[in-house]
Amino acid sequence: MGELPEHVAVNRAYWDAMAHEWVEGGARAWTQAEPTWGVWGVPEGELHLLPGDMTGMRAIELGCGTGYVSGWMARRGASVTGIDNSAEQLRTARRLSEQHGVALELIHGNAEAVPCADNSFDFAISEYGAAIWADPYEWIPEAHRLLRPGGILVFLGNHALVSVCSPLDGSYPIARRLERPYFGSHRLDWRDAVDDPGGIEFTLTFSEWIKLFRATGFEILDLTEIQAPADAVGSRSGISADWARDFPSEHVWTLRRRDRSSPG
């Protein structure tokens, strides 16, 4: 195995070091009968990110963390593979999957280079995970490779407004004004952030996302900009519930891999 790209190595060390902070939340999510999504816990009944019946489907979670999304899919009948960059996160995922009697294939690796064959999966999903921690110019084509023609990719991550409203020094809270350029915000290095220093994240402008999807071979089925629920309180990573009711802090893209015979 060659040397890891800088962001992959940085994010691996970051998540291995902080994995213990996500054990309790992961364990709680594993007990949920119905999925909830993102930092504001929006119900599956509102977002519809998963097929209701996944019997016979092969699914992959790109950046599975503690594995609860993989568990939700397995309980809907799917055969599920989860890949994550953090060995410590996977340690929790394995323990919880065994505790709940849910069979998962779990891989320690990078969602930009997944050790699975072409056309292996019917459905791919990332809730944060690869959606923000992997380079989209690498992981989106990789997801396309992994999916069969007609396969679905769903991913949830930070909205572009979060990056442009984040102070340059990485301090909290997120502002109600533009703090950094919208253009050229592809790579966000938070290692020296004033508050909650972290790893290296990625984002794109909306036009860049759309051009990447088309160039890769995906068609866009849906885009949802998530609004914090009316009863949400507190803040998440410097984003207050009031901010997230006025501006979207998260987005969800739903894509379908075009059949090779389909027009571009």
Automatic annotation (TrEMBL):
GO terms for biological process: methylation. Residues 61-155 form the Methyltransferase type domain. Coiled coil: none annotated. This is Methyltransferase domain-containing protein. Pfam families: Methyltransf_11. CDD domains: AdoMet_MTases (cd02440). Keywords: Methyltransferase, Transferase. GO terms for molecular function: methyltransferase activity. SUPFAM superfamilies: S-adenosyl-L-methionine-dependent methyltransferases. The keyword Iron-sulfur does not apply. PANTHER family: 2-METHOXY-6-POLYPRENYL-1,4-BENZOQUINOL METHYLASE, MITOCHONDRIAL (PTHR43591:SF24), METHYLTRANSFERASE (PTHR43591).
